[in-house]
């Protein structure tokens, strides 16, 4: 197992590589995926079709992330191409999550409540288990698993970009007694050193900027543990 957050391929258990006080019921593989040619040779080659199959999937979801981003920035009134170049050249981080069968799913979680440090995240799940916090109702809602359907949720960076108009989606994963659950999360980010700030078009006297700028590298260097319940999430450190 490796807990060096700057390594291109990381394996781990629980939440954040090797730093957790409480253990969560998950093993994961994390790697970069864009540009594909730069990373594919660093990926595992067992099973033998992993690189080919995952490579195709990564390209498709990257394309989808750009289309969704265009729709989001257009809805914010800052134009469909506002983020295009930055996101196109940005990092795509893939997490393959494996949640083994759990004898006591009532008292354990696969992943604690968290928001993703991404612009947006696209998740493919093998069976239900992903839940999102419905903020108005204050209740967890299970994301149904429709065959091959992808779940898309906004991450911290779109909250910052939109000055809080879009809220980063808080989510968690529950466990199953009978079988293993697999999910693939694709996180779409800007480049490592590229700072995300609030769109200046959305800031004026009546709507002052509510977030500090940050880069993906700032996030990697954030010494977080999984004490998220105590509010130690990265997005909270960005709020002005
Ligand atoms: O397993 C899932 O459905 C979601 C995983 C997740 O939230 C993550 O990897 O950040
Ligand atoms: Fe997540």
Automatic annotation (TrEMBL):
Domain of life: Eukaryota
Pfam families attached to this UniProt entry: 2OG-FeII_Oxy
Fe2OG dioxygenase domain sequence ranges: 89-190
Signal peptide: none
GO molecular function, one term: oxidoreductase activity
Keywords (A to Z) from UniProt: Iron, Metal-binding, Oxidoreductase, Vitamin C
Annotated family: Belongs to the iron/ascorbate-dependent oxidoreductase family.
Name of the protein in its database record: Fe2OG dioxygenase domain-containing protein
Species the sequence originates in: Prunus dulcis (Almond)
